[in-house]
Design goal:
CATH topology: Vanadium-containing Chloroperoxidase, domain 1
Structural class: mainly alpha
Largest sheet: none
CATH class: Mainly Alpha
Radius of gyration: 19 Å
Distance between the termini: 47 Å
CATH superfamily: Phosphatidic acid phosphatase type 2/haloperoxidase
Length: 199
C-alpha cells in the first residue's frame, strides 16, 4: 500500500469502531467537540493560581499554539485533503464540519500545544494531559472529520513547537518584564495577602 492507502486504511480501522461500538459514540463526540472548553478552563485555572511557573506555562502554551498554527498553515499549503466524510463513502460522521483542507488537524494542534506545554512544566498530572491530547486526536478520526495523517502531523508540529518555545521563551527578559507589569496591575485591582500554591 502507498501512503494514501495506509492513511485511509487506518482511518477506516478507527472510524468503523463507531459502527461496531455505537455506545461509545456519545463519549467520543463529546471529546471531539467539547473538550476544548475543559482545556480553556484549565488555562484559566492555572493562570489565576497567580504563581510564576503556572503563568509562564500558560504563556508558553499560548505562544506554542500560535507558532504551531503558523507551521500548520504552511504544511497545509503543501498538501491538501478534504475531510474523510467529503472524500470517502460510508463514513461514520458524528459531527457537522465545513468542508475544507483538513490537513493538519487544528484541534490536534491546539490540544498538543497546550498539553505538551503542561507536560514540560508539570510533574504532577503530566501523563493525563498527554493522554487527553491523544484522546482528542483519536476522537477526531472516530467522528469522521480527520484522517490519521492530519492528526499525526498536527501533533508532531505542536510537540516540536512546544519544545522550541520551552527552551526560548522563559529565558526572554521581555516576557518576564511584561508578566511583572501585568502582575503589578493585577495586584492593584485584586490585592492578595498570600501567594497561591502551585498546582
Amino acid at each position: 500500500m502507498n501512503a494514501s492507502e495506509i492513511n485511509v486504511h487506518y482511518f477506516r480501522m478507527i472510524n468503523d469502531l463507531g459502527k461496531h461500538f455505537p455506545v461509545l459514540n456519545p463519549a467520543f463526540t463529546f471529546i471531539a467537540e467539547y473538550m476544548v472548553y475543559i482545556l480553556a478552563l484549565s488555562a484559566l485555572l492555572y493562570w489565576f493560581t497567580r504563581t510564576d511557573e503556572n503563568r509562564m506555562m500558560v504563556v508558553c502554551a499560548t505562544v506554542t499554539f500560535f507558532l504551531a498554527e503558523l507551521l500548520g498553515k504552511a504544511a497545509g499549503s503543501l498538501h491538501f485533503n478534504q475531510q474523510p466524510f467529503a472524500e470517502l463513502p460510508d463514513v461514520n460522521q458524528l459531527v457537522e464540519k465545513a468542508v475544507n483542507n483538513s490537513f493538519p488537524s487544528d484541534h490536534t494542534i491546539l490540544f498538543f500545544s497546550f498539553c505538551m506545554s503542561y507536560w514540560l512544566f508539570k510533574k504532577k498530572g503530566r501523563l493525563l494531559w498527554m493522554l487527553l491530547a491523544l484522546c482528542v486526536g483519536i476522537s477526531r478520526i472516530w467522528v469522521g472529520v480527520h484522517y490519521p495523517a492530519d492528526v499525526i502531523v498536527g501533533a508532531l508540529i505542536s510537540i516540536g513547537s512546544a519544545l522550541a518555545v520551552y527552551l526560548v521563551v522563559p529565558r526572554l527578559r521581555a516576557v518576564h518584564s511584561i508578566l511583572t507589569l501585568y502582575e503589578r496591575g493585577e495586584r492593584a485591582v485584586f490585592p492578595s495577602k498570600t501567594k497561591a500554591k502551585d498546582l
